[in-house]
């Protein structure tokens, strides 16, 4: 997702755990509704929030806060994720969530695609490196049966 010229917006109002969380943290923006529940539970099954998932969570929450959730697999609500910085913003109703995302997408559709893409590239410079993602993949694959 980080290399595609498309702007990705996650609209969460259910569970986003494991791979779902890895998708959310790699989106350009993420918004949570009242029924959102987000977690990185991989450690509970002997794994790693791979594909850059751990690094994205650390960058969003900070090392100490991320450690609590990555090392325990504990879930957070949308409102908690907002307070922690795990999502861009949380809403207390599905309607407010949907309206905000629709308004945002409508506004961005009016903007120059080239300007959006170069801005996305600048923002994404803060993500994990390709080497880190490959190390995550190698670490995860060690746990799979051969």
TrEMBL record:
Coiled coil: none
Keyword tags: Virulence
Top-rank lineage group of the source organism: Eukaryota
CDD domains associated with the record: crotonase-like (cd06558)
Keyword Repeat appears in the UniProt entry: no
InterPro entries: ClpP/crotonase-like_dom_sf, Enoyl-CoA_hydra/iso
Keyword Glycoprotein: no
Gene Ontology molecular function: catalytic activity
SUPFAM superfamilies (UniProt xref): ClpP/crotonase
Matches recorded under Pfam families: ECH_1
Pathway of action: Mycotoxin biosynthesis
Any one of the GO BP annotations: fatty acid beta-oxidation
Protein name: ClpP/crotonase
């Amino acid at each position: 997702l980080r290399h595609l010229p498309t702007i990705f917006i996650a609209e969460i109002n259910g569970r986003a755990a494991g791979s779902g969380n890895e998708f959310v943290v790699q989106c350009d923006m993420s918004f949570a509704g009242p029924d959102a529940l987000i977690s990185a539970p991989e450690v509970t099954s002997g794994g790693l929030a791979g594909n850059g998932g751990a690094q994205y969570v650390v960058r969003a929450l900070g090392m100490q806060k991320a450690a609590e959730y990555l090392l325990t697999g504990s879930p957070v609500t949308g409102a908690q994720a907002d307070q922690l910085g795990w999502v861009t913003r949380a809403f207390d109703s599905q309607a407010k969530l949907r309206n905000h995302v629709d308004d945002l997408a409508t506004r961005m559709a009016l903007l120059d695609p080239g300007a959006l893409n170069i801005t996305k590239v600048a923002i994404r410079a803060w993500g994990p490196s390709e080497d880190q993602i490959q190390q995550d993949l190698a670490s995860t694959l060690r746990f799979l049966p051969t």
